[in-house]
Amino acid sequence: MERSKYFLILFLIINLNAFSQSNKQKVYQAYISNKMENWKAVIDQMQLIEKPSLPTRLELLDYQYGYIAYCLGKEKEDEAEKYLEKAWDNLEILEDKKYQPAWTNGYRSAFYGYEIGLSSMMAPFYGPKSMTYAKKAMEADANNPFGFIQYGNIQYYMPSTFGGSKTEAIEYYKKAIVKMEALGDIHFNWNYLSLLAVTGQALESVNKLSEAKLYYEKALKKEPNFLWVKNDLLPKLLKKLNNGK
Question: CA angle at residue 125 from 40 to 90, to 5 degrees?
């Protein structure tokens, strides 16, 4: 009987890990192929899990974080607001458990930024909070890239009159890339590809076109089927470079 219980538990652990890995791969494939309806399906499925473990809830939070950013970029404010409300609930559960503060502080920083995206009038209220939690994330774990990404985002989107700096943003994006690579967390990781693409865009914004090209090429070397870079960002950049000759 004990032997049967052992194999049942082992079976459940293996299948739970496979489920998690499958979700990660599904989201990754959705990201590189720009099929965000598949990404949304993963979130909706995971949200139905009763009493998810803390690591599973943190994984779900990552997918919500990415999907909300996509919705805001596509001006789907109602969809963004709907998923942000769910994300706040998941975040607060993780915070109550004091689970992975470097990550949770980073998500809180990002979500305050999303609230500003939904209502720019809230910038004076949420902006300082977003900055505070990005700093807390970096202080909680200097090797975790996520807080550095959020601090870079704040510097990039904050108007220079209020202290924003695209140059400083690029520095923090580059630090985050180094930290992510040092951790080895770059396989089937949509965040890594996104970070490379965003760094390239930031470099373009300060007219460092040749350096931006290197980051786009690095992203495609890692993932040749990354359509956003392959079919959009890199071709447009090459056109700029050719017109500048």
Answer: 30
Q: Which residue, chain included where needed, has tokens 């990201």?
A: 31
Round to whole Å and give the CA distance between 173 and 29.
23
What is the spatial distance between Cα 165 and Cα 87, in angstroms, rounded to a whole number? Answer: 28
Going by pLDDT thresholds of 50, 70 and 90, the confidence category of residue 14 is very low
Cα angle 60, 115, 113; round to 5: 80
List the domain boundaries for the chain: 186-245
- Chain centroid offset of residue 27 CA: 12
Structure tokens at 231: 């079919």
Q: 240 with 209: CB under 8 angstroms?
A: yes
Place of tokens 């503060």: 101
E strand residue ranges, 143-243: none
pLDDT tens by residue, 46-102: 999 999 999 999 999 999 999 999 999 999 999 999 999 999 999 999 999 999 999
State the Cα–Cα distance between residues 50 and 176, nearest whole angstrom. Answer: 34
Structure confidence by residue, pLDDT tens digits, 162-205: 899 999 999 999 999 999 999 998 999 999 999 999 999 999 99
Token digits of residue 37: 């309806």
190-215 b/e (C-beta count within 10 Å ≥ 16 → b)? bbbbbbbbbbbbbbbeeebeeebbeb
Beta strands in the chain (DSSP E): none
CB burial class (10 A; 0-12, 13-18, 19+) of residue 73?
A: exposed
Asked if 110 contacts 90 with a C-beta cutoff of 8 angstroms, the reply is no
